[in-house]
Amino acid sequence: MRLHPKPLDEANAFVAVPSVGAALALLKRLRGAVGPGLSAFEIMLPQAYEGVTGFLGMPRPLAAQAPFYVLAEVQSFRDDQAIERFSASLMEGLEEGVAEDAVVSQSPREFQSLWTMRDSCADYVRTRDHIIGGDVSVPLHRIEAFLGASQAAVRRIDPETEFLVFGHLGDGNLHYVIATPKARDAMETVYRMVAESGGSIAAEHGIGIDKKPWLHLSRSAAEIGTMRRLKAALDPKGILNRGRIFDGA
Prior knowledge:
Distance between the termini: 30 Å
């Protein structure tokens, strides 16, 4: 465990972007401007953004409508003008078209308001019917193609599916949340396409109980065999986290 110093200053920005490719270009630009000071880079699809702002009863930070939205955060640990470089890089992104509109927090209240919006996405989707979500990861260079192809495939199962996707674009982690009465069939399709894209069906939250039927999509038979042997060695009586990952263990 390592303790990190509290940042001297921090700011965030909510940005409308025309595509995932543009979001990744903006990510590259901001990393180049502030390096490790870029402490978050989140993505939201419109239905998640519009849904959570309605759920919270808050005004939308941006009036512009866009295919994707990004929440980026910068932290400064010394007097290095990181926030100024962050803001300047955003302006350059707007001029070059990788961003369509942006708002930068100007106070702790505005900073917290943007994070409340993002952090409340999980609470919002739990209020919806026919919801299923998969915490998945896909290599950054394949995310744009994966999102387009997976949405098209899910819509072939249910054309009325809502995509309430949000997540940590900076590390390729997506909370792939959808609303459809055909949730299980749709999510199985998503998981298979994650595997075909070289990703993982469990990015942050593990396999647990819900993802057991699809574990083989992310792990080979040899890897699963090794996992079973380790489980048996460390928990011979099968009393720890019973029923998680493996049946009867």
